[in-house]
Amino acid sequence: MLNQVDMKAEIQSMPKWLRPSLGKASDISTVQKIIKQRQLHTICEEGRCPNRGECYAQKTATFLLMGPTCTRSCAFCQVDKGHAPIPLDPKEPEKVAEAVYLLGLEYVVLTSVARDDLPDGGASWFVATMTAIREQTPEAKIEVLTADFWGGQAGVGVDKLAVSLAERQRRRIEVVINAEPACYNHNIETVSRLQGPVRRGAKYERSLDVLRIVKELDPNIPTKSGLMLGHGETETEVVEAMADLRKVGCDRITLGQYMRPSLAHLPVQKYWTPEEFDQLGAIAKQMGFSHVRSGPLVRSSYHAGDSI
């Protein structure tokens, strides 16, 4: 494991194209004030997004529902994990709706931590929040970025468990789909070979199933997914992953650079250059993705509203 000196050297050696603009302090404080007053969470802060300065300056944020603690333990993610999540705040949907209204958002992105402890994985919470937003800002478009809605039960045979979980996953997705989001996003995060070490508790095929099920339930809802590059994947593997996404009807894609948040997270294996991202973006467009964002600082919700 790297010591503090090594970690500092690693940060200092980061390519110049990975040093984003911080944005104006006054613009950033406006969003932070609205968020903090309501004790809300955003993936911008919890995930230490490199674009939060730019997004806050544009008075936008991606809301992180159901608390800041995740029941999964992905090795790349900065979001808090490793202990029991907090109880749901019954006023959170209303608070998010107030923030959306005060920020004057036309396009809203709702994501969440994985909540495998909840009976429906949090599907109904997405719907409750969407409903609250539409009551105050009916014209707002709402994109959802969900977990895979997979959970387990103890003491059930393996075959029966697999069928039960698959059916439950589909029903949870259907709950969200029935609320008619403007886009349904679920990230596969990395290529098939690296799912184990990068996405603990998640499965490549299971994530593809999420996107496939969305299209089966409502072919008119755009689907979206993303990969974070830099874990040791090859260009061939990235292209194969994009092809897998197209096979399940995925319409939109984001490709960005993984940036190590701390010593406790996976080290970066490679910094992909802007030119390489441009090349992958061009390949994605050739494959038929209708909306492509590919660049070192691109994240799942980066300029999400540009697609409307």
How would you sum up this structure, described in words?
- The protein is an alpha/beta fold and 308 residues long.
- The protein has one domain: TIM Barrel, CATH 3.20.20.70.
- Helices cover 40% and strands 13% of the residues.
- It contains eleven helices and nine strands.
- It has a seven-stranded parallel sheet. Strands 2-3 form a two-stranded parallel ribbon.
- The protein is globular.
- The termini are far apart.
- The mean pLDDT is 84.
Question: Which key phrases capture this entry?
Answer:
308 residues; alpha/beta; TIM Barrel; seven-stranded parallel beta sheet; 11 helices; 9 strands; 40% helix; globular
Structural class: alpha/beta
Largest β-sheet summary: 7 strands, parallel
Q: What's the architecture, going by CATH?
A: Alpha-Beta Barrel
What is the overall pLDDT average? 84
The gist of it:
By secondary structure, the chain is of the alpha/beta class. The chain has helices at about 5-10, 25-35, 45, 50-55, 90-105, 125-135, 160-175, 195-200, 205-215, 235-245, 275-285, and strands at about 60-65, 70, 80, 105-110, 140-145, 185, 225-230, 250-255, 290-295.
